[in-house]
Amino acid sequence: MQESARTRAPRNSKKAKEAGPLPKNLGFYPSGWQDCLEDAKRECRVSHLLSNNPFPSKSRDLKTSITEALTTTISEWNESAVFEPGYWPDHKTGMACVLLGDMSTWRSELKTVAFAVCPVAYNLIPPQEIPPREKVQWVQNSAAQLLADSFFLRGGFDQQGKTNNFAHPALMEVAIRFFYTGSYRIADKRPDQFRKAIPLACIALAGAAINCVLDGFAKNGAVTLKTIPQFSGKEYRSTFLTMSKMLNEILRHPYHGRKLRKQVGKWGEEGWYVVFLTRTPR
Q: Region Disordered: which residues (predicted)?
């Protein structure tokens, strides 16, 4: 008698459930490998950001820069760690997929930090005198004004009446909070590059994340994080690259370049001071 689809489905579902994690999932690996892969994630994050590629893709980067970050970390760990056999290099591709997936998670966490900072930093909370039915429109208009000509990046004017570019306090708060502190930080992975000055790529990516959040506010009032667009390469790689170009152009300017160098130095020192205060053993 032929077995019906009704009886086959539970059996197949049970097999899928019992199959366990796949090699592209961190849970597939034993604890020793998991610790190494967590460190490899941090290496992948910082190496891609500092090479102006915080939106790596599977087709372009999985077998190149992502695998390079993985092998670099494993080589360092091999000097003192003893790994369970049967995982390397057998599951090299799976391990690289773990790092690729983490890059998306990492950017999403940056967007979450930006979402927490923006409402207060940019005065996007409607005043009490605004009627309830007009509050969403008020937020949308306010966010749209900030996005116009990238006004949200500016930090007022200096004593000469010139614009302070890429100097808004929200930009500094997001950058220091995310890149220097918390579980997703990367500053202590490259202390020589983060201690005395925050890298321009960090400012550009923080700016792109704030741009993403403000897009959500401008479109629908962004009541929750779910209403913010995905911070993906498809949507925001060009924004990041544009901001990187703008920062480098400012750096070459005889007047604004000096201000920017002083600013990134100050932000780096402040960020590293926070690292020192909050440092915990890994």
A: 1-25
The DSSP secondary-structure symbol of 206 reads H
pLDDT tens per residue across span 229-257 = 999 999 999 999 999 999 999 999 999 99
- 8 A C-beta contact, residue 118 and residue 223: no
**pLDDT tens digits, one per residue of 110-162:** 999 999 999 999 999 999 999 999 999 999 999 999 999 999 999 999 999 99
Q: How far apart are CA 94 and CA 104, in angstroms?
A: 16
Which residue from 49, 60, 33 is spatially nearest to 185, judged by alpha carbons? 49
Return the number of other C-beta atoms located less than 10 Å from residue 15's C-beta.
9
Query: Rounded to an integer, what distance in angstroms lies between the CA atom of residue 273 and that of residue 270?
Result: 5
Q: Residue 253: in which H helix or E strand, if any?
A: none
